[in-house]
Write a structure and sequence with these properties.
Elements lengths: L1 E10 L2 E11 L2 E6 L9 E8 L1 E6 L20 H12 L4 H18 L1 E8 L15 H13 L2 E8 L21 H14 L7 E2 L2 E2 L7 H7 L7 E5 L3 H11 L3 H8 L6 E5 L5 H10 L2 E4 L1 H6 L7 H6 L3 E4 L9 H16 L13 H17 L13 E4 L12 H9 L6 E6 L2 E5 L2 E2 L2 H15 L2
Parallel strand pairs: 1-4, 5-6, 6-7, 7-8, 7-9, 10-11, 11-12, 12-13
Antiparallel strand pairs: 1-2, 2-3, 4-14, 14-15, 15-16, 16-17
Helix pairs in contact: 2-3, 2-14, 12-13
The protein binds zinc ion.
């Protein structure tokens, strides 16, 4: 058994002081507030639960910062996507593992302890399945195992290049499956997760552009895990869906698929008031990726109306252009402030802390979307983040004000240690494998950009 002690801790039922946490076999087995620390070696200042990162495409980290030069015409999500397709061409299985390991080290150092990997790079450079069709899923699982992050693997079903079952393009050849090959892929992915602690297998029809509702219905029974889909990220996508079906993407999805609390709708940026209300009532989680959505010029999610209607949300780092849990939450709130010319928008009610509301909502929404328990509670995995009490934006604060300082006022990282299943992976802000993983990542970048 491991025993940890914290001066203050943000528990599932609120803030407590002088908390002893007992950890056995990776789980929290006892939580005791108001305890004496004198016989406990591991004493720390502030404990937060690790945050779920509900949406990642790990391989995209390989070209983060490389698409920020203006092209000949107006740049958009769609010109970025062409650059992404080109970058994908030369990545092999060992590269996928090296890039994902770098991404997962950065996530752990940022306070994310579970990742939802929306994994759509499946085949070799010619678009042919590897001898084991799940080879690249196994590379993702290996990176999670090496770095210690909890994994909800979401193998992506991708069959078409646009609405109405259009032929996929050459740039999409490494993503494409039919229902039969996807069934084999899911089976291989399932075997690859067997030895990974706390792993969850879900499924991800990529989007209504890439999967028909008939195909979505056919693949849903392949797992009982979470179901994730990209929807309504871009106005062009809304226009294309309208001209194809006469309906908007979220409207079409809610009318034609059994969307409920098992689902996570990624982005859902462009919704009418009616769609916003209907999505909130469905119980599905909104998977918001504020840094990537800003980087790609997507738009701003209708958060106040969605939350007022009972909608749940979590955050993801999506393209992984920048990996920072606090900054995702800060940008989520700041985009709303800019749009509504108001302050403390997502706190919703008088007297509530914005930081604590954002953090608590992303914790609950992320746990639901990834089907992985989160929060400091007996029975939950001991996935814990400690903050540096010497940080000028953290020290001297208590309760919710700690989270307001962490999210809104800490420019340099305030995270000290991170434990996964009670094992300390990050200390002094550094993951124990940071140097070796970064060296491999640099070698991979040099190889694929040569
Ligand atoms: Zn995405």
């Amino acid at each position: 058994m491991t025993r940890l002690w914290f001066e203050t801790a943000y528990l599932a039922d609120g803030w407590a002081r002088h908390v002893t946490l007992d950890v056995t076999d990776g789980r929290i087995t006892a939580i005791t507030p108001d305890t004496d620390s004198s016989d406990i070696a591991e004493r720390h200042a502030i404990a937060l639960p690790g945050l779920p990162n509900l949406h990642s495409h790990a391989f995209q980290r390989a070209f983060a910062g490389n698409t920020e030069v203006r092209g000949p015409s107006s740049d958009s999500f769609w010109t970025w996507r062409e650059a992404m397709y080109r970058a994908v061409d030369r990545i092999d299985p060992s590269d996928v593992e090296a890039i994902a390991a770098q991404v997962y080290v950065e996530m752990l150092e940022a306070g994310f302890t579970r990742v939802g990997e929306f994994h759509y790079l499946h085949h070799d450079g010619d678009g042919r399945p590897y001898a084991d069709i799940g080879e690249l899923s196994h590379a993702i699982a290996a990176a999670a195992g090496e770095t210690g992050i909890a994994l909800t693997l979401l193998p992506v079903f991708y069959a078409h290049g646009g609405f109405g079952a259009q032929e996929p393009t050459h740039g999409q050849r490494r993503f494409i499956n039919d229902i039969n090959s996807f069934g084999r892929l899911i089976e291989s992915a399932r075997q690859g997760l067997e030895s990974l602690p706390d792993a969850v297998l879900g499924i991800a029809p990529h989007s209504l552009r890439a999967a028909t509702v008939e195909e979505i219905a056919a693949i849903l029974p392949l797992t009982d895990g979470p179901i994730h889909i990209h929807v309504a990220e871009q106005t062009k996508e809304v226009d294309d869906c309208l001209s194809w079906s006469g309906r908007r993407p979220v409207e079409y999805l809610l009318d034609n698929a059994p969307v409920d609390a098992r689902w996570c709708l990624i982005h859902a940026t462009h919704m009418t008031a009616t769609e916003t209300l209907a999505m909130a009532r469905s119980g599905a989680v909104a998977g918001l990726c504020p840094i990537t959505e800003a980087n790609l010029g997507d738009g701003i999610f209708p958060a106040p109306d969605f939350v007022a209607a009972g909608g749940r949300y979590g955050v993801g780092s999506d393209s992984n252009v920048l990996i920072n849990a606090a900054e995702e939450l800060r940008l989520l709130e700041y985009s709303q402030r800019l749009a509504h010319r108001a302050r403390n928008v997502l706190a919703m009610n008088e007297g509530r802390s914005t930081g604590e509301t954002l953090f608590g909502s992303a914790l609950k929404g992320g746990a639901q979307a990834l089907q992985g328990a989160a929060g400091l509670a007996v029975g939950a995995p001991a996935d814990i983040v400690s903050l540096d009490a010497g940080h000028p934006s953290i020290g001297g604060r208590s309760g919710a004000a700690i989270l307001d300082g962490f999210i809104f006022a800490a420019a340099r990282p305030a995270i000290d240690c991170v434990w996964r299943r009670g094992e300390k992976l990050v200390e002094g802000g550094h993951h124990h494998a940071r140097e070796s993983v970064a060296a491999r990542f640099r070698a991979t970048l040099a190889k694929i950009s040569a």
